[in-house]
Amino acid sequence: MNKTFDMSIFLPAFLLSALSVVLIYAATFYSASPVLKMIYQKQVIWFGLGLVVCAIIYFIPLRFHEAFAYVYYGLACVLLVFLLLYSKGSSSRWISLGFFNVQPAELAKLAVVFSLARFLGFSKLKLDEFRWVFAVLAIIALPAGLILIQPDLGSSLVFFAIFIALIIWSGLSPGRILMVVTPVIGIISAFHWLSWAIFIFLLLVLIFVTRLRLWQGVFFFLANLIGGMITPVMWNNLHTYQQKRIITFLDPGQDPRGAGYQIIQSKIAVGAGGFFGQGFLQGTQTKLNFLPERHTDFIFSVLAEQFGFFGSVIVIALFCIIFYRGFAVALKARNQFFGYAACGLTAVMAFQVLINIGMTIGLTPVTGLPLPFLSYGGSSLLFFWAAIGLLLAINRDWQEY
Amino acid sequence: MIDGTEGRRLNHRLLLLLIFAAVVFIFAKLAGMQIFSGTEYRRASEQNGVRVVPISAPRGVISDRNNRILVKNRPSYSMYLVPYEAKNIDSTAARLAEVLGREPDEIRKQIRLGWQGRFQPIRLKRDVEFNTVCFIEEHSLEFPGVIFQVEPTRLYPESNFGSHIWGYIGEVTEGDLAGDELEGYSLGDFVGKEGLEKQYEWFLRGQGGLKYLEVTAGGKIVGELPDRERIDPVRGSELIMEIDWELQEIAERELAARGSGAVVGIDPRNGAVRVLCSVPDFDANLFSGVISPEEWKAVMADSLHPLFNRSIKGTYPPGSTMKLFTAAMGLENEFITEISKFESCVGAKRFGNRSFRCWKPAGHGKLDLIGAIIQSCDVYFYQLGVLGGVDSWSTTASANRFGIKTGIDLPGEFAGLVPTAVYFDSRYGVKGWTKYLVLNLAIGQGELLVTPTQMAVLFAALGNDGIIYKPRLISRIISPIDSEITIIDPEIIGHLDISDKNLAILLKSMIGVIADEHGTARRVALDSVTVAGKTGTAQNPHGEDHAWFTCFAPAESPELALAVIVENSGHGGSIAAPLAKRILEKYFEKPDEISTIDLEDNHE
Which ipTM was obtained for this model? Predict the structure, then answer.
């Protein structure tokens, strides 16, 4: 290993992946299903494949990705459309290739990060112009929309996170960043006339302060005005069960039998872990099969139950090292394209980590987003190892110059 | 304004700061859960799982006016399947099918329909026999995920009696949920489908609760989860009926002894329904478990339609009971007075090119109005009908609320029909009928249709100075929360279109129907009170005539008005009137029996 290989990125990812095998083993140890019991072995294979993917990507010249960014994007969108047609309305997230399943959403994440990085890194783009934000939105909206109708709300939220991270990274002024997210705030505030009135007032102040061009100001004002007015109408036109579904998504405690059950069980598992945990294979929640989805979405609960606060902090710290190094790589990257790409990939990782862990302790909605490196699942693991490979490569390029 | 590079550097920090803040937040929450509340969570986790179990609310009970409880609840075992615990649903379904004697496919379908998530118990069967419960509990390892829950089920201790008053309940089906009507109900919930159960569903239903149970992986219930408070069910409101069960029992028994038909008894002073029965009837208990397809088929295939409530849905020609209103037409329009006479009755009379017969072949001779009512002389009323004509006849009928729903608090009441000239025009063509159609109408035959409830309401009004009260089955609704009582007040819905003077004439003749030596209902006469009434025989093109008797007593200040119809049984005077007499006898001997009623209070 030479100096250009950044161990501080590789090692945490390697440790997390190794831990993943241990946790999946523990999560399925007491399972009645023989298939489930053997699943940790599959994760070992995925881990190996992940390392291979990481190595391949590490050695592909980065220029290649820059050149093919839009081709990736096109391919990903074609795959997503194909998936929708292929699944014919039955909500499937995979395309089966016989021996293994591909999740086009994971490929789309990579493709979107590359094409946004290329778009934002285009040297002649005038960042002060603000109008490019709309182009960025359009690039994101297509794959995010295709994924949303699968339906996979969690994965489409990842694209929103990429978007926010990249426009912050681009150096857009905080006022304008706020302006971009006003429609989201507007829709939330539109449920009461008073909060909405205050919101509209603040929006006007913001438009004035950020010195938008006239048409941009008018656009944001009208978009918010119309959005705010139709939101309550749309809400009231939803069926009660649809409203319930949305409320349950935001507050699982409202549905103690469905999504809320998982949260209750997960919180019991996490809390029961205490400071040092119940010990390896000792958690009663996992042991007695009360915790659902514990080898996939709720793997963190298994960790927290068996290894306690101590183990949780170490794992989160490992993630934080990757985030920190990821953003550091992005800062030092040789050109804009690499910087944006590193930032976008790190943001995806950070978003999924925060949302997934937040879910297991009842802070965030149940979205079905896996925990990077730890959750069982090939597509997710391969994606994150690909991301690590790219971060390492971007770091190498910087070192070599 | 910050320059570009400076701005970017700030933004990079902002991004890191956002993520850092979120991580700190997660650390804080983890520390709170694992370090500070760790022991509580650990206790909850110790060998336990959480199962959320719905608790169904008992429906409100229904009592008669003397607080005798007639509809109540009994505990029963419902079988549920928790899919998450069942692991292999197909094999569990197959094993259950064996024990329950059903098809595995049927059970699998039920599981599919009832599926609300893997942790939500699915009700497979209500009212499981105790032996079956014991067997499954003993072999619980073979039935993973099968649990039992004690739930209230409707109990109608009187079986068939009163079934048309309270109707029945049924489970909410998939089809029911498709509409908006049953908002807030789940598949398999009980809902009132007929009668009071349907009409007062909102009050009777109560509100279901929830409890959080700690359960070991083996399915053993440890107890309720301490940090999740259970939501107690609220039982449904109690309904107090105006029905007098002693009278109802007599009416049911006497009517069943005579065949099919209906009896409706109303207090003319306020519209309180004292008796309401329809025969044939059904056993509402059949519906409160899960009715088997065979049982349902048997009920539906019965040619006598036992589920059809004749008292509010049966429409019949009123027969001669209508003569009182034909008389009212004559008096109100001043076509005649009480002493008016027509051509003598010789057993029949010719109108146009057809001869119309009186019911008495020997004829009644020359009668005045009162005599004609007392003896129910058809020939007299033919002549009165022709004198008045179709228009004034139907105007009088409509003005006295024939053809209009009474508004009784039961679902599905029929309005009956008052034919008019317009009706005949559309039915037979403008020139397709003659004015002699009124002959049939004048004696209550032909197209005019009434329900027994309508007749009871109108005769109650005849005895109550023409004031028409809306018939009411329920007098009070007692809420289970702080026993708040809602009193349902009597409601006047109109007046008969008959003057006091003419009402007195009609009353005099109705008394004569029972008291006069020629009266058609002589056998109804009671020693203690004067009864006023009118017999009727409704011609039935499909079979034997229907026997009518409508009356009220005491004649001067009536407390009970009755309408009795016995289908396909012949003459009102001989079949329906004696039935009414039994009820009146019971009613007016009442004061002696109050003590026995007291003894039966407050049973549940």
Answer: 0.91
